[in-house]
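Quarterly update from the structural biology core.
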Amino acid sequence: MLEFFANPGYLAAGGALVSAPIIIHLINRMRFKRLRWAAMEFLLKSQKRNRRRLIIEQLLLLFLRCLLVALVTLLVARFAGFSFAQSQTKDTIYLVLLDDTLSMNDQWKEADGQKNCFLVVKAEVEKIIKSMSQTNRNDRLIVLPLSKVGTDRTYQPKTYSRLFDKAKMDEAKNDLGLMEASQLHVNLLPAIKKAQEIVLNNPESQIKLYLFSDLRQSDWSLPAGETQKDALLKLAKGEDVFPVLQDCVYPYRLKDQGGVPLSRDNVGIVDLRASTRVAGKGMPVTFTVTVANYSSRERQVTIPIYNDKKGVEYFEIDPIQLKIPADSTASASFDMRFYDEVKATESTFVQISAHLEAPQRGKLDNDGLAHDNVRYATVEIREKVPVLVIDGEGSKGRLENQDSFFLKNAIISVPGASYDVVYGDELGGGVPTKVLERSDLLQFPTIFLLNVRELTPKQLTNLENYVRDGGGVGFFLGSNVDPLYYNKNLYKKGKGIFPVPLRESGYFPPADRDPLKPEYTADEWHVLLRDVQFPTLEQYPIFGSLFRDGAKSKEVEVLKDLPIKRYFQVPRSEWRPQPGKVEELATLPNDRPVSEYTGAALEIFKKLDKILADNEEFQPNKRGLDRHRKTIESLVGPGSEKKAQHLATALTAMLQDKGKEKERADYPNLTEFWTNSDPKIRSLREDITSLADEAKYGDPFVIAGLYGKGKTVAVMTTAGKEWNDWGGGSGASLIYQPFVWEMQNYLSSQASDSYLTVGTPVQIAVDAEQYKKPGRQLKMVRTFKKAQHGKPAQDLQEGDQFPEQAKGELIFNFDKNLEPGLYVSQLMYEDGKKPLASWGHVFNVDTPREGKLQRISQEDLEKIRKDSGDKIKIESPQTSQDLDSDRVSDLSESPWFFLLFLGVLVAEQALAVHLSFHLKGGEAELPATVARVPAKAA
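Predicted structure, tokenized:
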């Protein structure tokens, strides 16, 4: 019954007031004492004739007075009743999917001050609350913030009902007021699935589904956008589900505007990466900062670097000046050394940040998001950086000219470095690979496996976990290596930590044949760089830093004198490297006889002759093409002792021949011919390029791979001089040590860790046996080092966490990483203060996915609407429908109620006057006193 009242609290008072006219009537009847006297008896006899009529009139008057009080009570309590409230057979759930991701901080200025998308969204939700507060229906409001649903699988939203009650309405408004846009990137799909769950659990209700968002193109484009669009369309098929998509970005969408609405420019830092995740005290560390420009014009920025631990700028480093082309990225690097005090057995984490500012310093103008103008990085500083070397030959490998001998000398020769080379056989009791059975492998930023035959299952599992968690492994092969084991257990058809399969027949040339004897020549390369596969040198692992100027560098000439005598071959036909995961960094030249390519080369010229014969306009190029034909036919002709790589050089020369400006008849510009748009020429050019690559590149030599958060590099020959003269005895010896330095930097550099985005869960696994002590409980103490501009970082304790045990490991899970910055986790005993081990994780906003503020086009939105059968409505704050149209009016708003109230009031007054005693106009009043007539004497 109470559900029919907007303000049911007034019913009690109203019920009491209804009894007031009855009580007054009874009191009036009891006011006088009855006295019987003759005149009154006469009047009473006269009255008896009209008694029934008078009683009915008095009761009617009493009823009207009670009715008036009841109507006033209904007015105040706002009664809707069956005739109003039941105009809809189902109650309504207002289900709000509230986009509170980073891009909702998109800001702009209006006349009344600074605004952003999220403030607009909150204003729209407040309209719903206000509308619900003006009806007595049992409607409910459920708000689903995307950040809550996307990061907490157990999240249960709060339900607001009976918002006509002011206290409950104020509660909903207060909760809404406390909401703020997060710094997360969250997909919409989990919220849609949660909405579907709510719909299924409330079949008796109709659902008004509101999605308040900024509707960015990056969120709704393929492939993720297609998935969430399909889920939304599926949800909209529900009979009682009525979805509304509202774009809350200014300038607001207009109903018939079409095209893509305007969006604000934005510049953001997409990466700040250190060359290593662990460095020794005073050791140089190179940082690279990358900035993205998501606008249609070039932007110029200044990037100062800050010491967040102290809250001050690093003035010893000049702020970086960077120009970023429109809709592109730009990078810059800088070097730093850290001299933080650190004990021999401990480590500390430095925290730095890069900030985007205007060219003349100060706040950036016309920048949509402020949160992506700061990016954080950390480096673990130790007194010495341990590097683990596992040599298959054990201590023999440390003899002169052996693998460990050369590798150690290269590592410790790094200028300013503080490396400490640790050997596996020394830590493993004489068995080199036994060290991999330890669970504290992450104390070594890099592990080198030199000529290792195989690993036990436990050793392999630990090594895989080490790389998956961010470690780096470098492989140098040798005669001990078992290719069958490597393929089955390390390569695993592309799913293991070794990046490439090995030819199972063994190394080449085999032991029963003499080693190769490559000699230095001016026109032959012993190792070929693959720099053309990478857009910039910064993106070219190891060799990009080794040869700063790429193939133009004079230093690269030493690769013509790098004799490789034996190596492991790769079956290219069985190798399908995953782009972005496995990269071929350097390759051995194709030294097969050129005669193997005679047929393919001659087929090229058959196709070329047909093109020239069919097109007279191409005849001026014939002399130049014939000259190259003679050269190539001579290369591949009978008796030729040339190698395949020479054919590649000749084919490339034909494609790049620009001729002679003054002798065009004999030396035409063939680049114009090969860039002609004719389909047959384009097809032939592709054939020539493919043949040139096949003839040029032989077996892969240096291959890099990504595995989990870590990196691996495989070198197909030995680290020492057994199979090559790289370490000494050749011109390439000059770059052996720098190669090892850059390989070490690459393996220990941050991979996926630098891309930990806000909200990403982190798990830390610890070997239970290593730290287990009777009666002592382990715990993890976590601290958020919150950066403060101009002040030292604030240490915010996140509370202690006790582990869960699984398969001999102690597992610590950290899910609430909701603010960008550095989080330090320290393992210690519950009753102790000294940390046993430390981990540092830096979280940053997801600039690549949140910084693009371009909006989805109106045509794409209209397609979604049409695909839903026009069920989904597309709105903006300017075009949204009046929410009051959904509200059911109660009795207090009915004009018929007021007419009824007025009619009852008039009838009550008329009847009251009728029943009251009034003299007519000509009648005299009764005397005020009555004189008693004295009795006559008898």
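The chain has five domains: 2-85+892-913, 92-263+853-887, 267-383+756-850, 385-516+564-592+701-749, 594-695.
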